[in-house]
């Protein structure tokens, strides 16, 4: 992709690189006996959850975030392996080092995917498509893993393009193709339109991008509020969002799913104590603290409630973090139903510094 727009501004060249079944592929790479088999990364116990699934498992309908018991029902031969997040982080660092050979404008979305703006690449590497091919080849050569890539003139279409030829594929959506490509898709295929919004659009008679494009901006505002402009734009292949380098996390958290439902405050507080210790260890490793602790409770009927507690100054210790968590937990007891999952998150993040020099960081998308 090359050229300039009518306003003499260069057409942006955006890549979306997405590793193929990342966690599962790392496990199959490191243990050849797992290759070709339906594999899930996660806890295989009854109350476990699938963190990732190999393509062999996906053919049976196994997906990430699916309860393990449902996954086993869909694929009785499914193999579970425990996650090794330190390994995944190390491989992710290798992949991001490859990205950095071509551009400094890298926006990670997770360990296994990122947007890259190569409009002004570090060195002359040819077209955006050529850069994507070189990145995919380097990933394969240096990690023995495969990645899919999407190439387009904005983030929305680059993401759609990377999904279009998975796994181990590359697809380009040019400025001439963009509007028609967006119009041809079902709205639930749009990145940025979730299941609830898609269902609402269906109720309004909006099934495809073409249907969405027929809606006036006033109609979209009436039904979708501040998201209207975004939906109006993407239905026409327009997305002005920039690729933002060095995104800083807004929160850090951890959670646990219980083997059997928890009913007593003593059991829940013991679990919360362990979560606070784990979360504070992660904060110290990253030199982070925060002012707001948020408790997440998922009940046996899958109802989720969150309760937040804040203070004027950043959390200074594991004990303070636990006290905030307990303050949010206590009002939920006595509980009239069992608790399936408990989580604890720290937000309003800032660097851990001395009290005299504490300074809030600005965390923006």
Tell me what you see in this structure:
It catalyses: DNA(n) + a 2'-deoxyribonucleoside 5'-triphosphate = DNA(n+1) + diphosphate. Monomer. The chain contains 13 helices and 12 strands. The protein is α+β, with helices and mostly antiparallel strands and 365 residues long. Among the domains are: 22-84, MutS, DNA mismatch repair protein, domain I; 178-234, DNA polymerase, domain 1; 251-351, Dna Ligase, domain 1 (2-Layer Sandwich). The strands form 3 sheets. A 5-stranded mixed β-sheet has the order 5-6-1-7-8. β2 and β3 (50-53) form a beta hairpin. The chain is globular and about 60 Å long.
What is this structure's SSE topology?
Layout: E1 14-19, H1 22-30, E2 39-42, E3 50-53, H2 55-58, H3 68-74, E4 79-81, H4 85-99, E5 106-110, E6 113-117, H5 128-143, E7 147-152, H6 155-164, E8 170-172, H7 178-184, H8 195-203, H9 209-213, H10 217-224, H11 228-234, E9 251-262, H12 265-286, E10 288-299, E11 304-310, H13 318-329, E12 339-351
Secondary-structure-derived class: alpha+beta
Largest sheet: 5 strands, mixed
CATH topology of the domain at 251-351: Dna Ligase, domain 1
Rounded average pLDDT:
90
Strand content: 15-25%
- Give the terminus-to-terminus CA distance: 27 Å
Helix content: 25-40%
Order of helices and strands: EHEEHHEHEEHEHEHHHHHEHEEHE
Family: Belongs to the DNA polymerase type-Y family.
Subcellular location: Cytoplasm
Catalytic activity: DNA(n) + a 2'-deoxyribonucleoside 5'-triphosphate = DNA(n+1) + diphosphate
Binding site for Mg(2+): 18, 112
